[in-house]
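From the pipeline queue, job 12 of 40. The input is one protein chain; the requested action is below.

Action: predict structure.
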Amino acid sequence: MTSFSKELSFRWSDLDPNFHVRHSAYYDFGAQHRIEILENLGLTMKVLRSQNFGPILFREECVFRKEILLADKIVMHTKISKMRPDASRWSIVHEFMNDDNKLCATITVDGAWMDTKLRKIADPTPEIAMDAIRNFPKTNDFLEL
């Protein structure tokens, strides 16, 4: 697998007054896709709750390259671009590609795992999280931190 991919479906409420996808909708699509991927990798909400940990973001950035309109066919591709060997810190990239395979936007997030009882970074990284995130497809320029 080269990436986790998802075809997006836009709603009227995803648009801004200029009739293209509003900036915050991109972040919503990225967040939803990350949660769906974690669920697919076995990190369900039930598992996260029972083991008292979850993902936390330190940075979320979107670079907009080409506007997306309501009827556009867009596929979001998600990969991991950076990770520490123990999977304690990581960066994930979402690329929004149109029908012409042109890049419309890129979201990059930097994150870690949080111990939800202690409200601190999980140390050590839960084994199930390490196993899951190691199964993420990697970018061509993947960097081990």
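Job complete. The chain has a mean pLDDT of 95.
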